[in-house]
Amino acid sequence: MQASEHRAAAAPATISVTCRLFARYAEALGRDELQLDLAAGATVADAVHELRRGAAGGVVPERPLAAVNREHAAPDTPLRDGDEVALLPPLAGG
Amino acid sequence: MQASEHRAAAAPATISVTCRLFARYAEALGRDELQLDLAAGATVADAVHELRRGAAGGVVPERPLAAVNREHAAPDTPLRDGDEVALLPPLAGG
Amino acid sequence: MSVEYLTREPIDAERLLREVGDDGRGGAVLFLGSVRRGEEDGPVVAIDYEAYEEMAAAEFERIVAQAREQWPEAGLAVRHRLGAVPLGEASIAVAAAAPHRTEAFAACSWIVDQAKHRLPVWKKERFEDGATRWRED
Amino acid sequence: MSVEYLTREPIDAERLLREVGDDGRGGAVLFLGSVRRGEEDGPVVAIDYEAYEEMAAAEFERIVAQAREQWPEAGLAVRHRLGAVPLGEASIAVAAAAPHRTEAFAACSWIVDQAKHRLPVWKKERFEDGATRWRED
Questions:
Q1: Which of A81, A91, C60, C65 could make an SS bond with C5 (beta carbons 3.0 to 4.6 A apart)?
Q2: Interface membership of A73 toward C (CB under 8 Å)
C-alpha cells in the first residue's frame, strides 16, 4: 500500500499517449497518428472517448478493437504516459 | 425365390478364382498369384482356408485383409467363378 | 517489417515447407490462403493488404510461441503478404510439420485461425475500374 | 499404374496445388507424408513402397469420389509414390482447396486418413547395410 500511494503521489496529473490509426480509420480521418493528453488513470475507453469528441466521432465506434504497445487490449486497460494506443478497424487478415 | 433357384440350378459345382498375394505374403510364399478351385458358393474365408492348407498356413493368418475384384471384402463375401481374390498384409501406405 | 513473418513479395510455399522439414517429422501440412473471387464481389483484380506492421510481426511471434507450447515437436513457419496481392496468389501461408500427421494438421489449422482473429491486417479490394473498397469480413 | 494417383517419380507438390487451385477457392491445404527416421528404426535410408496397383488406383478414385460428395465445391488431388523413396522425401501427398478454409482442412485430413486405412500399399525398410524389413504399422 505504501508503495502504491507513493506512486500515486508521484504520478503526473496528465499523461500523453500516441494514438495510431489504421486502414479505414486512418483514411477517413486523413491522418494515422496523433497525440492525446489524458487525465492520469485514463483507460483505452477514455482515449477513445477523447478522440471521438473530434472528427473521429463519425468514424471510430465507441468500442473499437484496440491495442496498447502492440498487444490487443480491452477498453478498461489503464494507460501510462508514453503508451502507444492503436485503434483497429475489424481485422481482415489472412 | 424362383429366380434364385434357377440361378442355383445353373451354377457350376465348382468355381475357379485367381488368388493374388502381395508384399510379405508374396515374398514368404515365393509367388504372387495362383488359381484356386472352390466349391460353388464359397466365400473369401473358404478361399483363405483352402490356401492355408498348403505352405501359406504359416504365413497368411486365418482372417487376413482381403479384396475381391479390387475392392475390400469381408470374409463372408461370396465368390463367383473368375473372381480375383487378393490377400493383403496389414496396410502400410502413406 | 520482420523478414520472418511479413513480406511484400510472392510467398514461396516450397521454402516454408523446407523450413519446417526435418527427417524426424513425417507429416507436413501447408495452408495457403488466397485472394478469392467471391460471387458477391464483382470484378476484383487484387487486394491491397495493409498491416500495423510492428504489432503484426509481434502478434505472429506470440501465436507461433503459443503453438510451440502446444506442439513442442512441431516445425512451424508463417508468412503474411502485404501490399497488392493479385487474384489467385497467396496472402497467408502457414506450414507445420510434426512426427505425426494429427499434430501437423492441428497446429497448422490452429495457427491459421489465430492469425485470422488476431493479426492487425486489413484489406482493400481493388476493382477493374480502379475503384477501391475496404473489405471487413 | 494410373498416372493420376500413383507415381514412381518424386511428388511435385506445387503441381498438386496448381491442380486444385481456382480463384473461387480461397483456402488450399496440402499434406505431405514423408519417410521418417523414427527413433526406434536404426539407420533407415529409404523405404520401398509396393502396391496392389490396380486396386490402389481404384481405391484412391473411390476415396476422392466420396470426398467430392462431402465437399462438392472442393478441388482435390492425390498422389502416392511407389518404389524406393529416400529419407525425407514424400510418399503421399493430398491437396484440397475450397472456398473456405475449414472445408479445405477437413477434406484434406479426411482423405489422408482414408488413404492410410484403405490403400493397398506396403513398405519395406531398407537399412544402411542393405538389409530390408517389411514394416507394418
A1: C60
A2: no
How close C130 comes to chain D (CA, Å)?
20
For residue C32, the tally of other CB atoms under 10 A from its CB is 27
| Interface mutation vs chain C, best among A29, A70, A83, A84, most C CBs within 10 Å | A70
User: Exposed/middle/buried for C96, CB within 10 Å: 0-12, 13-18, 19+?
Assistant: buried
- CB contact burial A26-65 (16+ within 10 A = b; e otherwise): bbbbeeeeeebebeeebbbbbbbebbbeeebeebbeeebe
Q: Is the dihedral of CA D94, C22, C98, C16 positive or negative?
A: negative
Q: Is B23 on the interface with D (CB under 8 A)?
A: yes
pLDDT (tens digit per residue) in A57-83: 889 999 999 999 999 999 999 999 999
Contacts of C33 in chain D (CB under 8 A): 26-28, 101
User: Residue A89 has what DSSP assignment?
Assistant: P
What b/e string do you get for D65-77 counting C-beta neighbours within 10 Å, with b at 16 or more?
eebeeebeebbbb
Cross-chain Cβ contact C116/A86 below 8 Å: no
Whether residues D121 and B67 touch (CB distance < 8 A) is answered with: no
Task: Split chain C (137 residues) into runs of 10 and give each run's mean pLDDT.
Answer: 78 95 91 79 84 97 97 97 93 96 98 98 90 86
Q: Are A35 and A13 in contact (CB under 8 A)?
A: no
Q: D31 and C104: CB-CB below 8 Å?
A: yes
For cell 495457403, the residue is C32
Whether B29 has its CB under 8 Å from any CB of chain D: the answer is no
For cell 486512418, what's the residue?
A26
| Contacts A–C by Cβ distance under 8 A | 72
Among D33, D54, D122, the residue with its CB nearest the CB of B23 is D122
What ipTM was reported for this prediction?
0.89
- Of C102, B91, C99, residue with least CA distance to D37: C99
- The three-class DSSP label of residue A40 is coil
> Which pTM was predicted?
0.91
- Determine the Cα–Cα distance for residues A11 and D102; give it in Å rounded to an integer: 50
CB B27 within 8 A of CB B50: no
Burial of D106 (0-12, 13-18, 19+ CB in 10 A): buried
